[in-house]
Amino acid sequence: MVRAKNKLRFVCRECGHQEFKWHGRCPGCGTWNSMIEELNTDRGKRSTAFSESRPVPITTVTDVSEQRILTGCGELDRVLGGGIVPGSLILIGGDPGIGKSTLALQAASAIADRQLLSLYVTGEESAQQTRMRALRLGVMTESLYVLTETSLEHIKNYAEKLSPKLIVIDSIQTVYTETIPSAPGSVAQVRECTAYLLQMAKANNIPVLIVGHVTKEGFLAGPRVLEHMVDTVLYFEGERHHTFRILRAVKNRFGSTNEIGVFEMGGQGLQEVSNPSEIFLAERPTGVSGSVVVAGMEGSRPMLVEIQALVSSSNFGNPRRMTSGIDINRVNLIAAVLEKRVGLHIGNQDAYVNVAGGVRLTEPAVDLGIAVALASSFRDIPVIQSAVILGEIGLTGEVRGISQVAKRIHEGVKLGFGTFIIPMANLSQCKDNGNCKIIGVETVVEAFELALGVSA
Ligand code: TYD
Ligand code: MG
What we know:
Strand content: 25-35%
CATH architecture of the largest domain: 3-Layer(aba) Sandwich
Low-confidence stretches: none
CATH superfamily of the largest domain: P-loop containing nucleotide triphosphate hydrolases
Strand order of the largest sheet: 6-5-7-8-4-9-10-11-12
Helix content: 10-25%
Bound molecules: thymidine-5'-diphosphate, magnesium ion
Radius of gyration: 26 Å
Number of domains: 3
Number of strands: 21
Number of helices: 10
């Protein structure tokens, strides 16, 4: 065949689609400028670790979820769905410097602390650097092995010799397999190495935690192509200049993807934050306009956070809108509803909306909170004391029902909030237990009157 002679090929770093010619736009997934050059290689030499498997009745298959390994780090265990499933392949992605290596090392050492052997393979730092980091984290145990190696074949040898309970590969972009000639970090290497690790994990029933880098553009054969192959994909995120870090599962074959873990990066590594609401609200100013407390749901856990808005008249023809932690389009939509349905003329105003603490709110249930924050800042009237505001806003200015109201209110009451402005549709689901005031609203205008004490 003519094609076999083609030494070069072009691979999309987003979806892994292959072409023999360069394309400005990937024909596979439509991403622009994502095709990169790779050497075409013979992939026929793959070992066959699974060749011995035979069909068996499903009832006789051993249930591995029962043997989950608890890392001892509560937040991580929860995100994983209750511990690490043996033989699973877990990918942790995140921006450089966010704390992936720290988290991976802490997980490995937490397991090692319980006299279970764990192997931390690093291709990025020396063993000395890892030791320094471990000292800083206060984790020094003999059951934690460090290996500075980038050859996958060698890693496999050691893994088989030691048979650890957990292997950490930090990072997948630094390891390579000798079976293909591409450079480490290229799409082909990353994909091939992951496939290799997958076989290793399943064949020996050892869980493997892979660290992967993503830059803004999902560059460096970002873990995108890996997401299909691994069992669990976790993203570690947070604002670089904030100390809070949030671990989010975007794919999990062994648990829910709704759970998040909250950590705080401190002098001794990542500390678990088991009561995030309290910490997110700690620095909240009182009696100032533009600040609203909302209760977002993160998985099964309600979390109170503060939304801050600043609306000021614009010096330019085109007003600026900036957000952090909230989708800017959502804010634009809410601003449009305020303009048209409430008669609040903020169309020619600059508006800045922040979520305190570096949290990201994606739920529509925080719409009403954003709207009240904008109105409060615009009118320069603070929101009434100790109020939590909940509700989704429709395009006609109506307030629509949200999910799990009772849980959110419960969290608010726990933290001393006394007034809850919620959608009328949800009012019947909440029982008034006497120590708080729950008010249902049907429109944004009603919510303003209640929250700001004046008519909009
Ligand atoms: P790191 O885990 O190396 O990030 P990644 O592997 O995702 O690139 O973490 C790097 C950052 O974390 C670095 O800026 C320093 C900070 N850090 C602390 O603040 N405290 C600590 O105890 C440790 C280990 C790191
Ligand atoms: Mg690192």
